[in-house]
C-alpha cells in the first residue's frame, strides 16, 4: 500500500458489505394516505427486489407489513392515516417505521410526532418500536438495508449454497416421483445328519440385492 493516501476499511458484519434478499414473499402496504411511503417502498423494491410486492390499497388486504413513513406531513396531511395505523395494529400487522431525516423530503425531529400523532396511538405503544432513520447521501444505502432487514431480508446465500438448497427443496417436493426398487432373491439349502458319531451340516445361501435406484434425480442436478 505504499503511496496510498487512504486504505479501504471493512468491518465484519457491516450492513452494506452483505447483499440482502427476501427468503419468502413480502407484501408491503404503502397507504395512499401516507405521503412519501410509496416512493420509499419503490426504492426498497428496486434495491432488493425479488419477493417484495407493494400494495397501494386503502386497506391492508393481504399485506404482511405496513410501511409507516414519518415526516413533517405525517398525520397532518391526511386524517385517514391514523385510522389505517389503528386498523393495522388491531389486525396485528407488523408496522415498519421510517423516520425521514432529509430536510428536502420533509425531514423533522422525531419529537414532532408526539405532537401530531393521535394520543390513542401513542398511548397504545406505537412508538415503542424502533423507527429507522432515513438519512440522505452516502448513509442512505444503510438506511434502506436496515429497513429491508426489518421487512425480513437476510444475507443472500452464495451461488453454490443457494443451488444446493434449491436442489434439496426440489427433491423434497418431488419425493413422490422417486421409485425405490429393491430385488431380493435368496435360496437356502441345508442338510443335517446326526447319528451319534458326529454331525455334518452344509448351508448354501445365494442373495442378490440390487442397488437402490432413484429416478428423476438427474433432471434436478
Descriptive keywords:
single chain, 221 residues, alpha/beta, five-stranded parallel β-sheet, 6 helices, 26% helix, globular, disordered C terminus
Number of strands: 9
Calculate the terminal CA-CA distance, rounded to whole Å. 44 Å
Q: What letter string, H or E per element, gives the SSE order?
A: EEHEEHEHHEHEHEE
* Class computed from helices, strands and strand pairing: alpha/beta
For the largest beta-sheet, the strand count, sense and barrel status come to:
5 strands, parallel
Please state the average pLDDT score: 79
In the sheet with the most strands, the strands line up as: 3-2-4-5-6
Separate helix tally: 6
Percentage of residues in DSSP E strands: 15-25%
What oligomeric state best describes the polypeptide chains here? single chain
Helix content: 25-40%
Shape estimate? globular
Amino acid at each position: 500500500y505504499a503511496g496510498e493516501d487512504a486504505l479501504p476499511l471493512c468491518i465484519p458484519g457491516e450492513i452494506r458489505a452483505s447483499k440482502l434478499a427476501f427468503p419468502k414473499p413480502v407484501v408491503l402496504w404503502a397507504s395512499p394516505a401516507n405521503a412519501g411511503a410509496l416512493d420509499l417502498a419503490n426504492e426498497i423494491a428496486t434495491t432488493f427486489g425479488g419477493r417484495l410486492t407493494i400494495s397501494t390499497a386503502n386497506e391492508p388486504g393481504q399485506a404482511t407489513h405496513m410501511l409507516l413513513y414519518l415526516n413533517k406531513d405525517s398525520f397532518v396531511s391526511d386524517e385517514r392515516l391514523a385510522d389505517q395505523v389503528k386498523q393495522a395494529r388491531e389486525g396485528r400487522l407488523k408496522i415498519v417505521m421510517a423516520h425521514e431525516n432529509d430536510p428536502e423530503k420533509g425531514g423533522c425531529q422525531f419529537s414532532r410526532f408526539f405532537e401530531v400523532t393521535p394520543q390513542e396511538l401513542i398511548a397504545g405503544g406505537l412508538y415503542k418500536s424502533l423507527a429507522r432513520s432515513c438519512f440522505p447521501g452516502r448513509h442512505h444505502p444503510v438506511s434502506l438495508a436496515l429497513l429491508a432487514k426489518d421487512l425480513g431480508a437476510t444475507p443472500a446465500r452464495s451461488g453454490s449454497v443457494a443451488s444446493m438448497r434449491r436442489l434439496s427443496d426440489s427433491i423434497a417436493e418431488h419425493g413422490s416421483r422417486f421409485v425405490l426398487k429393491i430385488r431380493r432373491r435368496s435360496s437356502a439349502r441345508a442338510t443335517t445328519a446326526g447319528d451319534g458319531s458326529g454331525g455334518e451340516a452344509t448351508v448354501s445361501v445365494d442373495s442378490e440385492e440390487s442397488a437402490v435406484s432413484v429416478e428423476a434425480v438427474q433432471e434436478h442436478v
